[in-house]
Amino acid sequence: MGINPSMRRTWLAHNTGHALDASAHTAFAAEDVRTNIENLVGAVEVPLGIAGPLRVNGTHANGSFYVPFATTEGTLVSTYQYGMRAISEAGGANAYVLGDALDVTPCFILAETRDAIALADWLGVHLAELQAVAAESTAHGRLVDVRPHVFGRRVFAQCVFSTGDAMGMNMVNLAADRICRHVVAAMPCERYYLRCNYSSDKKPAAINLFRLYGKEVAIDLTMPGEVVRTHLGISPRELVDFGATGRLGSMQAGALGTNAHFANGLAAIFIACGQDVAQIVNASIGFLDLELVGDDDLYVAARLPNLVIATVGGGTALPTQRECLALLECVGDGTARRFAEIVGAALVAGELAICAALADGRFIEAHRLNRLHA
Amino acid sequence: MGINPSMRRTWLAHNTGHALDASAHTAFAAEDVRTNIENLVGAVEVPLGIAGPLRVNGTHANGSFYVPFATTEGTLVSTYQYGMRAISEAGGANAYVLGDALDVTPCFILAETRDAIALADWLGVHLAELQAVAAESTAHGRLVDVRPHVFGRRVFAQCVFSTGDAMGMNMVNLAADRICRHVVAAMPCERYYLRCNYSSDKKPAAINLFRLYGKEVAIDLTMPGEVVRTHLGISPRELVDFGATGRLGSMQAGALGTNAHFANGLAAIFIACGQDVAQIVNASIGFLDLELVGDDDLYVAARLPNLVIATVGGGTALPTQRECLALLECVGDGTARRFAEIVGAALVAGELAICAALADGRFIEAHRLNRLHA
Amino acid sequence: MGINPSMRRTWLAHNTGHALDASAHTAFAAEDVRTNIENLVGAVEVPLGIAGPLRVNGTHANGSFYVPFATTEGTLVSTYQYGMRAISEAGGANAYVLGDALDVTPCFILAETRDAIALADWLGVHLAELQAVAAESTAHGRLVDVRPHVFGRRVFAQCVFSTGDAMGMNMVNLAADRICRHVVAAMPCERYYLRCNYSSDKKPAAINLFRLYGKEVAIDLTMPGEVVRTHLGISPRELVDFGATGRLGSMQAGALGTNAHFANGLAAIFIACGQDVAQIVNASIGFLDLELVGDDDLYVAARLPNLVIATVGGGTALPTQRECLALLECVGDGTARRFAEIVGAALVAGELAICAALADGRFIEAHRLNRLHA
Amino acid sequence: MGINPSMRRTWLAHNTGHALDASAHTAFAAEDVRTNIENLVGAVEVPLGIAGPLRVNGTHANGSFYVPFATTEGTLVSTYQYGMRAISEAGGANAYVLGDALDVTPCFILAETRDAIALADWLGVHLAELQAVAAESTAHGRLVDVRPHVFGRRVFAQCVFSTGDAMGMNMVNLAADRICRHVVAAMPCERYYLRCNYSSDKKPAAINLFRLYGKEVAIDLTMPGEVVRTHLGISPRELVDFGATGRLGSMQAGALGTNAHFANGLAAIFIACGQDVAQIVNASIGFLDLELVGDDDLYVAARLPNLVIATVGGGTALPTQRECLALLECVGDGTARRFAEIVGAALVAGELAICAALADGRFIEAHRLNRLHA
User: Fold this and answer.
1) Residues 6 or more apart from B97 whose CB is under 8 A from it?
2) Does residue D1 carry a pLDDT above 60?
């Protein structure tokens, strides 16, 4: 019972003078999104476009894919489309999931450094015990390691978990909370906090360069010079030259990672596929490199160390989002790594397209044309 | 004419075996989103919740607001709701737009440093001329400054624009392109690129700490100890203590800025209000500080130097998105700074709520309860 | 035989018109510094001052120490002296060496990511074999771990060593070179580089926050309010308030770590004690925190994760440098950790003194007085 | 009259059992270093070697130079020597001082953001007045700008000065202190601090990428392929390939800037020439880039934005240090920019040599040989 979306809309209209008529339509029932949102009034519609086919030669994703993008930014879908064609013509992008983890870092506060060191040592010795505690709260996640960092009277205890196809944040928070309660029952501790910014969830930080968070995905491909010229409209050498200047730009700007616009593709795919969209902050920290190999070929490589994604839980079960995941055959258990590989390959497509446009001065023209002909 | 969304859906279903039935519904007409997306097939529905009222005492936003959040992450809306209540009970959050700018940095490549210095000097002398060139391509933006950075034979020419209520990215790209063409016609130059990562659009970089990008927003308020205890369930001292540990966590993690979860509120409001969602990467780089003042009061301050937002253009005119902006009285010209102040105040609400939950160990409980009662 | 310093001075005087008369004096014989320098012409004299006694309660350094500083910067020694007195009056600084390691990261370049992953896997499986290879080249260092990072067709293979009392850089370079030759003999590899900037030796990088390099030292002490007032001329609360603003300053500036002037003490002690002075770049990346505890006490904590030091090798055997190390009872094998603890405690003394001076506005006066009375 | 160095040595020997006999020798008189050091006991001798000639084609430094290095690290001088020969054979390195400034950032703390904005505005309006205040305390420095940054109730007021041949730190501290006193007399202010870490003096921070600190120096040269092969023992292409991997290493490590070992040359030259050695922390943040140009030539460029140096004041007047500066014709007024250009060119020599050694696997061999034959 209680207040329903319609009542809330009425009440809002009364208070603000603004009706939410268009937003009232939902393909989902209010009770189906109880765990997704509070104070529900309806839904926002984000335009959905498809780019592809994109050929991916991954361990988990093998085939040609039509990738859904939910966006309101013109030229975005066509940019990815353009790059996907070039990748597919080159035989596809290789994709690998290098690892899979999620960490949360509680902070324990003690009297002085001596005690903090003692607690850190205790954590090292009692890993198996803590793993058992974590296992009580989740069947899917597994506590892999606890890495204590001592600063003054504080122990920042980085608890590293493996997760399955769920994004895993709630799971690891819950398990870490159990671990904390167990620790403070066993060891004297002035106070503790479950999280303290060290794991930098949804926050850009250098730590994201040094530990994987979510899936770490590697993508590469070698694109023959002829394909580059025909499908990206530029020579490999010109593209590599642009890449070198782009890296200098990134370094001068003090960037975390270097890429042209991972964030664009991430935002659009994450919205389409029911992901936790704020995770694009971490996920967009990654590296793209372009190299000339052989006589005239382009070697492209990407490293995405922070791809926090899921194919179950969160918004993945909502009607429109589920359709998008279905398009990629990424519905349900056992598909998260597949999804990660497709996302990685799609991001590389977007990089190639925008770099080619910037390298030969077509960037503005490309934007203008999409405006007119899309 | 040409292919319409329905035909694309049919064709996709044929190719993939997956229909996009739920996604077919759109409150907008295909022709209305021609400049927003390509390869349109429908729309994704993101659940919409409302938090508020939030009392804002800004220069542009003055009053109580109901803030729309589009998200699939449970507890998010209720977290912001909780903080908004506390802020409102304390009399509201002060909000200021400290500045407003957007830059794009073309890179000119010459023969050697001597020539790069000469070009940099030329740019300094010819600012008025370049401003005139920029003015030809846009009536809304204005070239404020060109700041050349010489590295080797390259000039990274940071072109700083003021923008109005549009987000302005297309505008400044276009104006910068004109500037580039003008420069290379006047001065010898081996080649140039319109963008080269230096301005770090949608990419986390240290530069975001040092120049404003979009709107720079400042928020502060002093919350009486009694309000903190009653509405955040904790004492000011305990909250400040947590904040100190959070700052240590951020610094140990090498974070750009320090905050708990700006990104969550940004993602949800940006989706609801038709913003360029990838801009949350930059926008989430900001600072939140908690201080004990007087006998028992909490002083809260936020600095958001990279709020790239708009109330015209992009997705702001789509039916559901426009309704969300209307709720905030932020439709159309002259409302961007108002929108910026509301967003800033909402983010601070989210910070207070999550910090309070983490500081007294209610974080997990809060998440659990929202699950059950939302 | 060959050219001696005197001949070089004569030749230089002939070529430049400038004699090096003062520099001609050396307490060392030319043949004694054959491995320390090339093209020897004499020595530069750096004024040497002593600060202390400094009470250190460490695991390895336990007692009161007179610390040598070689510097030409007025006020530096007296600043450290001032802080040392306060620490000693408070009963001394606790000191801990949390760990001890040094890494060098060769880069192996292969054909594509698939091969890079294979090499990374191979490295993981063959650790014992690589440890044996490393052991052939050094008796003092030990290969602890090899951590491969794959990016595109490259493997950045972080080889982590434990070192003894030598600084260890030559040792680990030599061992890593052997490892590289062993790897490329066993696995196909296009080419490799012994070093590639990843280990950031003598270069400021975020990696220095996340892995210890040299000795990781922790210092802490609780200073009674009365001692703070009497010996630092300020209240604990005022000092902590200054510290909070200093942290905000560091964060706004995008600093790696946060401290006031670790680099000053490091430079002066490193010159005095024959250390590799360029290592202050890494060593100065560290954290200082001030906290109010109990009713009126000051808790001080420092984390120095990158203290690359030695008590044998390098310049430690030169006559004047050896005297400085002797003063600390840090000559020869088994004393490096002791030296690390003393350096750490000395740096904290410098922090307390300068923070106190800045917090109550005595900074300029302190500088002026030292000028007159030193 | 006070304690003299001899008395201090006697007293130390009594207390510690260690005599400072070798350190007792000084080419300077105790009264001559009154402003350089306190608690003087003697001097530390750092071995001095010379590398050169180095051909520099600068605006201020034009000619061939013999550069002094004070170090105890074997191979260092010969490494720079090797690179200097290659540069000189290529016709020399171009050198430019792009700018000259030093800043100190006081922090003013007010009641709330509203007041902080008011103070920031006041500072903008009263620049001329503040310049007059600064002018009273120094004839050499000039207040160029005050850039206020508001965060919460704090104004971080970056006071930018131009300095002459002195390093200028004491000068700008003194002037900033006068400015602070003037400001707080004119405007209500809860408290202020003269420095608050924002200017990151001697501390590695991202701000060092964005504003020049001391001298900003640019170096470049084009080295014909034949010279590269003959004098660096490698082809331009191989060197450029190594550079590309080095940049990837720097970016993966989250480095501020990218170079191989600026810090080594800086430390050795700074000690030799009486500089403030701790300034190598900032000065080592810089960029080195290698590019293939034309058919087979190597283009080398360096950007050193933080070269805090001096040719008067500090340790520059000490006997041995003055001889080193004299060797470069950098004694006294009007020579600081000349010195900066020479230092910049010397650092590039060191980069070329070490990159060549790493690129073709001679690194270990080079170190071994210098050991035996130096």
Assistant:
1) B59, B60, B215, B216, B217, B337, B340, B341
2) no
Instruction: Select the highest-mean-pLDDT range: A208-222, C157-171, C356-370.
Output: A208-222
Model pLDDT for residues C48-94, shown as the tens digit of each residue: 999 999 999 999 999 999 999 999 999 999 999 999 999 999 999 99
Longest CA–CA separation in chain D, Å: 71
Nearest residue of D to residue B153 by CA position?
D301
Cα-to-chain-centroid distance, residue C50:
19
Residues 6+ apart with CB under 8 A from B360: B233, B234, B238
Closest of B308, B291, B310 to residue B300, by C-alpha: B291
Whether ipTM exceeds 0.90:
yes
Q: Which residue, among C113, C147, C154, C291, would best test binding to A if mutated, counting the most A CBs under 10 Å from its CB? A: C113
Which pLDDT score is estimated for B192?
97
Render pLDDT for D141-179 as a digit per residue (tens, 0 to 9).
899 999 999 999 999 999 999 987 777 888 899 999 999
Q: Look up C145 and say whether it is catalytic.
A: no
Please give the Cα distance from C123 to C121 (Å, whole number): 5
Calculate ∠ Cα B35-B41-B46, nearest 5°: 85
Residue D372 has pLDDT above 60, yes or no: no
Instruction: Indicate the helix (H) or strand (E) that contains A159.
Output: strand A154-162
Q: Is residue A208 within 8 Å of B284, Cβ to Cβ?
A: no
- For residue C50, what are the β-bridge partners? C68
Q: Within the 225-244 window of chain B, which residues sit less than 8 Å (CB to CB) from chain C?
A: 244
Token pair belonging to A258: 């270097």
Tabulate helix, strand, coil % of chain B (nearest 5). 45, 25, 30
pLDDT at C78: 97
Which of A209, A244, A247 is the closest to D254 by Cβ?
A: A209
Q: Which of D206, D244, D247 sits opposite A254 (nearest CB)?
A: D206
Q: What is the CA radius of gyration of chain A?
A: 23
> Which chain D residues have a beta carbon less than 8 Å from that of B289?
151-152
Measured distance CA(B68)–CA(A43) in Å, rounded = 10
Q: How many whole angstroms from its chain centre is CA A201? A: 11
- What pLDDT score was predicted for residue D149? 98
The answer for C75, left when phi > 0, alpha when psi is -120 to 50, beta otherwise, is left
Q: At what angle do helices A76-89 and A336-359 cross, to 10 degrees?
A: 100
Count of alpha carbons within 13 angstroms of residue D261, beta-carbon side:
27
Contact yes or no for C351/C262 (Cβ under 8 A): yes
Q: How confident is the model at residue B373 (pLDDT cuts 50, 70, 90)?
A: very low
From chain C, pick out residues whose CB is under 8 angstroms from the CB of D324. Answer: 23, 44
* A208 DSSP 8-state letter: G
Pairing verdict, β B287-293 and A214-223: unpaired
Q: Is C29 on the interface with D (CB under 8 A)?
A: no
- Which pLDDT belongs to residue D367? 73
Q: Of C25, C78, C256, which is closest to D27 when you measure between CB atoms? A: C25
D333 in catalytic set:
no
Q: Do D251 and A206 touch (CB under 8 A)?
A: no
Identity of residue A301: A
Residues of chain C neighbouring B258 (CB-CB closer than 8 A): 251
Residues 152-191 of C with CB under 8 A from D: 154, 156, 170, 173-174, 177
Q: What is the pLDDT of residues B285-315, one digit of tens each?
A: 999 999 999 999 999 999 999 999 999 999 9
CB C264 within 8 A of CB C284: no
Q: Which of C209, C210, C247 sits opposite B247 (nearest CB)?
A: C247
Q: Tell me the pLDDT band of A22, cut-offs 50, 70 and 90.
A: very high
Q: Which of residues 273-292 of A touch C (CB under 8 A)?
A: 287, 289, 291
- For residue A6, which residues of chain B lie inside 8 Å, CB to CB? none
